[in-house]
Amino acid sequence: MQNSLLISVLIVWLTASSAVLADETSVVARILQQDQGRSYGVMVGDMIHQRFVVEVKPPYSIIQSSLPQSGELNYWLELRDVAVSTKESDDRTLYLIDLKYQTFYAPLDVRTLTIPGIKLDFSAGEQRFQLHLPDWQFTMSPIKEITPGGVGNNNNAAAFMKAAIAPKTFSLDELNQRLGLLAAATSMVVIALLWLNGLLPKLGQSPFIGAARQIRRIKRRRHTAREDYLACLQSVHQAINQRAQTTVFAGQLDDFLAQFPQFSSLRDELTMFFRQSRDAFFMDKQPDPILINDCLDLCREMAAADKVTAVK
Questions:
Q1: How far is CA 237 from the centre of its chain?
Q2: Number of domains comprising the chain
Q3: Which are the contacts of 204, defined by CB distance < 8 A and separation ≥ 6?
Q4: How far apart are CA 202 and CA 129, in angstroms?
Q5: Is residue 21 part of a domain?
Q6: Does the pLDDT value for residue 297 go beyond 50?
Q7: 135 vs 153, more confident
Q8: Among the listed ranges 1-15, 142-156, 184-198, 265-279, which one has the minimum average pLDDT value?
């Protein structure tokens, strides 16, 4: 009797085990992982992300036409995007399915809504298998309450308004001080650059300083032509005329020195200069190579002797 009972139990156990194994081997696709997002506190306009990892046994593969298409599912729910990626191995194929929904339902109170499930079809030749991605329920909350709460509130639109937050003020004294220092430093740098480049008005500056600068530029040239010598003479003439505020010729040298006695000690140098100028411009003589140095020295000496009063 006991042996018969033991044999019966063993037969039942083997039958159940075979059924379980047969059921497991008959399942060709199953959901390994699923993440359907937050199921509470969803508001109008929110995006809902769902992700499924589906395992499929070979030789089955998903039928692309069974995948959902983007678009409106109903008046309050839209499927915005569907993305499917595949990872294959010898004994299985993994499908990563990403779904992106957006809800446009505007509840007046907390409501429970349902995103419908999806049926996926798989095929292997003539064989077919269908897997159901489950429905998903979530709760939506209203953006504002239907009637204003709190003591003393009236049932009107103004009762929903929050009190205005007063703007926070900041002291600008330190910033103004920094800005003033920065402006002063910038002005000093600009003035220094203008002065270094000779772009500032030269009030009170002797015209012989500018003539000496022009002659130095000519002197730095590698090859000196006759026109360069004439340009040096012309620079000195222009400085003398500018100082006298009239054209000064050789015969007017005495009047020039009487008007500007600070140049009296340079009478001989000025006399030689006018003679060199006459020979170069009117006698068509070739200037002496030391003419440039003579003109430069004359300008330096006259600039040093010049007494200039700045224009007020």
A1: 57
A2: 2
A3: 308, 309, 310, 311
A4: 97
A5: no
A6: yes
A7: 135
A8: 1-15
Domain presence at residue 96: yes
Q: How far apart are CA 147 and CA 155, in angstroms?
A: 6
Classify the C-alpha dihedral 255-261-263-265 as positive or negative. Answer: positive
- Distances 135 to 63, 138, 288 between C-alpha atoms, Å: 21, 10, 108
Q: Decide if 76 is inside a domain.
A: yes
- Nearest in space to 209 (alpha carbons), one of 292, 303, 273: 303
Residue type at 20 in one-letter notation: V
CATH number for the domain that contains residue 107: 2.60.40
> How is 261-308 classified by DSSP, letter by letter?
GGGGGGHHHHHHHHHHHHHHHTS-PPPPTTHHHHHHHHHHHHHHH---
At position 144, the amino acid (one-letter code) is K
Distances from the Cα of 96 to the Cαs of 46, 53, 84, in angstroms? 23, 5, 6
pLDDT tens for each residue of 11-28 = 545 554 444 444 445 688
Among 19-23, 54-58, 180-184, 204-208, where is mean pLDDT lowest?
Answer: 19-23
127-148: burial string, b at 16+ Cβ within 10 Å, e else: eebebebeebebebeeeeeeeb
Which structural domain range is residue 270 located in?
Answer: 207-305
CA 233/CA 230 separation, integer angstroms: 5
Q: What is the mean pLDDT of residues 115-143?
A: 90
Q: How far apart are CA 235 and CA 247, in angstroms?
A: 13
Which two tokens mark 63?
A: 């039928």
Distance (Å, whole) CA 96 – CA 114: 22
pTM: 0.43
Q: Are 287 and 229 in contact (CB under 8 A)?
A: yes
